[in-house]
Amino acid sequence: MASYELSSSSEQDVGLPIVLEPEVLGDDSHSMTEKLSDDMKDSMRNSTALNKDDAMMEVQVPTHPIPSMQGAFAESVLEANDSPAIPKNTIGNAGARRKLLIDQDVSEETHASRWRQKAGQQYHQLWKLMAQISFGIYLLLNGIAKDEEQVMTILQGHVDEVDEFLEMTLEDFDLAQDDIDERLKFLKLPLENIVIFDAMLEDRNFRLQIVNGNERIEHVITRTAAAMNDALKDVQQGLDACKEFTIYLAEEQEDPIWKGERPDMQKVFDAMKGNVEGWYKAYVSLQTKGNHLGVALVQLGSIIAEMDRRAGEVSRNKRVCFPFNILKLLLT
Q1: Core-most of 40, 116, 178, 233, by most CB within 10 Å?
Q2: How many CA atoms within 13 Å lie on the side-chain side of 143?
Q3: pLDDT (tens digit, 9 = 90+) per residue, 11-61?
Q4: What was the pLDDT predicted at 19?
C-alpha cells in the first residue's frame, strides 16, 4: 500500500464507491454517482433486503460489523443506488458564513442544516458517514477488499469530510462567541453607568437609536441561536456514532487474528483509532463551546431587554407628562 495517511485532506478526484457525499473538486470536476463496490458485494455472505417508499425494489446490503450502524449503512447504500450525486455546498470561511447567517431572515435555514436529515431519511448523515468509514476498516482488517489502495483512498475522503465538519463548526462557534462577547462588553457599559444612561434616554433620538439597535441585536441572537442549535444536534449525532465506532475499534484491537495475518494493517488501524479519538474530543469540545455560547446569548438578551424596558418607560412618561402639562396651562 502506498500510504497509511488518514488524517490530511485529499485532492484526488477518484471514483468513491462507498462515499456518502461525493465531493466536487475544482471547476473541471464532475459529480460521481455512488454505488456499492464490487468487493463489498462479493465478500459478504449475509445480506438483508430493504424497501423504500413502498417500492418492491430490493437492494442487497452486506451485514455491517457494528449492529447499531446496520440501519444507517443500509440507508446509505439504498440512497447510493437511488439518488444522483449532490455537490457539496461549502460557504467560504467562518467570516463569510457568519455574515450570511446574520444577513438572512430569521426563517431561513442555517448553513449547519446541510447535515440535517432530509424527508424520508431515518438516519443522520454523520451516522451514515461513520458507518461507511467503519465498514471500510472492516474490509481492510479482514483482507476482503479487492483493491486496498482504492479503499484507502475512499477512507481518506471520508476522514476529510468528518474533519471538515468539525473544523468548520469549531470555527463558527469560536467566531460567534467572539462576536457575542464583543457585543456584551459594549452593551454592559450603559447599564454600569445607569444614571448617565437614564439621562441620555430623555433624548428622543437616542431612545430611537437604542430601540432600532436592539432590534438588530435581537436578530443576531435569534440567528446565532438557530445555527448553534442546528450544529449541536449534528454534534450529538456525530458523538453517538463516534462512540459506537470507538467500541468496535477497542474490540478489534484485541483480535489476534488480523494482527497475525495482516500485520501491515496495524498502521492503518492506529491511524484510524487516532482519528476517532480526536473526533470524540472535538465533539465534546463543541458541546462545551455550545453551552458557553448559549449562556452568553441569554446574557445579551437580558441586557437589551433591560435597555428596551428603560427606554419604553421614559417614552411612556413623556407621553403622560405632555397632555398633563397642556391641561395645566388651560386651567391657569
Answers
A1: 40
A2: 9
A3: 333 333 343 332 333 333 333 223 344 444 444 434 444 445 443 346 688
A4: 32
> Burial code of 108-121, b = ≥16 C-beta within 10 A, e = fewer?
eebbbebbeeeeee
**CA dist., res. 133 & res. 155, Å (int):** 6
Q: Are 170 and 282 in contact (CB under 8 A)?
A: yes
21: helix, coil or strand?
A: coil
Q: β-strand 59-62 against 47-50: which pairing, if any?
A: antiparallel
| Rounded Cα distance, 99 and 149, in Å | 41
Q: What angle do CA 240, 135, 87 make, to 5 degrees?
A: 80
Q: Where are the alpha helices (DSSP H) in 85-124?
A: 94-103
The residues with which 48 forms a beta bridge, in sequence order, are 61
Tell me which residue of 148, 160, 146, 137 sits closest to 20, measured CA to CA.
Answer: 160
Residues of the chain with pLDDT under 50: 1-4, 8-51, 53-57, 320-331
The alpha carbons of the chain give a radius of gyration, in whole angstroms, of 27
Q: Report the distance separating Cα 111 and Cα 97, nearest Å.
A: 8
pLDDT in tens, 86-128: 555 567 799 999 999 999 999 998 877 667 667 788 999 899 9
CA–CA gap between residue 128 and residue 172 (Å, rounded) = 23
The C-alpha atoms of residue 70 and residue 242 are separated, in whole angstroms, by: 15
Q: pTM of the predicted model, to two decimals?
A: 0.78
Residue 54 gets the label, from left (phi > 0), alpha (psi -120 to 50) or beta, of left
The C-alpha cell of 54 is what? 413502498
Cα–Cα dist 98/251, whole Å = 41
DSSP 236-253: HHHHHHHHHHHHHHHHHH
